[in-house]
Structure formats: structure tokens, C-alpha cells
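subagent[fold] <- orchestrator: predict structure for attached chain, return C-alpha cells only, no commentary.
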Amino acid sequence: MNLKIFNMSGAGNLFNVIDNRDYALSREQMTQLVPEIVRLTKTENFLSEGVMFVNDSSKYDFEVNFYNTDGTSGMMCGNGGRCAVRFAKDLKFVDEGQVSFFMAGSNYKARFNSENIILSMPDPIKINTDFEYEFDGKIIKCGLFDVGSDHFVISDSDLGINFDEDSKFIEIARKIRYDFSAFPRGVNVNLIAIADNCLKIKTYERGIERITGACGTGSVSAAIYAHIHDNLPLPIKLIPPSGSELFVNFVRSSTGNISEVTLEGAAIFLDESEIII
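subagent[fold] -> orchestrator:
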């Protein structure tokens, strides 16, 4: 069977997207196909950071099955969700009104803002901006979040490294990501630095095992952390490694509750191809 694959970018976060309405692949088939799709679509300029299968839905505009490149699933991907909305609009099974879709066990809504897509996120499941973590015999202060995916957030100054030291960050991030005694499911690790009233961010992603071009749920976690911990004003502009800007906004109540979280940024098609499976 020939499988048509669309390559997309959500603020530099790279994805393979498949219109599963055409194939009706089962979950087992999707899981088995993911590593092969990633391998066969790899080029000098494209290395997938997630694979999505878009499906029909009787309740929503569509449903999305998202997979990390290692075949794991069940987590939310904010930039992937925005790409899925662009995909559905450009393939003309949704219009430019408000879009509703199901992904990672939750209902998400999105709307268009010119060429950007604004994704409304559920309220965070867990927020801890005063998390203390023992690393290499020292206690470091950081943030720990669950916004549909687990995220560890720390500033370059608190970690004691320069933001641009990628090799050093990767070495440290891998140790934290695989510290199952502290994080039983593993954790995504985000390094941040405030510059010119915006937030630089890089994310070592669990299930991809490298720094990615951008990370939507990491950006949401980092923005909440920087607003509460460093008083960075809303909305917050984030600059990921890709250089493609993301914007996070939310409401913080007088009691400190976070709600009405939105993630905004670009989502574009790059190219398409067919593979034989």
C-alpha cells in the first residue's frame, strides 16, 4: 500500500502527518509504522519530531493520534495540535471558524489569527514553581509541570550553564530525563533565559531524545514558570531553537489558579511524499 505523508512545521517543530481517513489504520498498525515513517522521510533538511494520524470523529471536527518518534504515545503536543488544525483546514474538512478536535484524551479548540493558529489548552494538571531537585549533590530550584505532558523547567543561571552550551545542556538533560526515581514517567527538560522581555527556550524532549526545533507544551510550562517566578508580563513571547516565535497567554486568578491558556504560532506545510508499506 502507498502511504501519503505530509511534512509540516509548527514553529520549527517538525511532523509527519497522515490523513488516516484514507487508510483506517488501527492503533497497532500506527504504532508499528511510526519508526519506519520517520526513517523513510528523513532528509538532510528534515528529521521528524513526531508523527500524527488524523481521523474522522462523530463528536468533534476530527481526532488526532500523536506519536513520538520512538513510537510512544498518550502525551499532548501543542505544536502538533496546531499543525493538525492547519492540515484539516487546508484539506478542507474544517473552515476558518473555531475548530474542535480530540487529542491525547482531551478536547481542544483552536482558531486562526491571520497565518497563525491559536490553540486553547486545558487548565494545567500540575504546577510547581518552587520545586527543589537534587542534582550532582546540589539542590537546584526549578519548576515542574503537567500540561498534558510532563515538563521540568530551569533557567540557565540556576542550572549554572550558559544558555548556548548545547552539548552541556544535553548531557545534563539526559540525566534528569532518565531519573525515574524522581520522575517515574521520565520528563521533558526545558532550559530558559530571559532576554529583552521575551523568553529563550530549548527543550530536550522525552521520546525524541534530543533538543527539538520547538516544543508547544514546553513553551506553555516555561511561560507559566517565568510569569510566576520572574514576573515576566503576559502575553509571553518565546524564541525556540528554530527562531520561529511562539506566544503564550493565560489568566492567573487572585488565588493563583491558571486558566484560559493559549499557544499561538505558525503552522505550515513543507512538502509531501509517498512511501510503500
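orchestrator: received. Logging for downstream: Residues 242 and 271 are 18 Å apart (CA to CA). The first strand starts at residue 2 and ends at 10.
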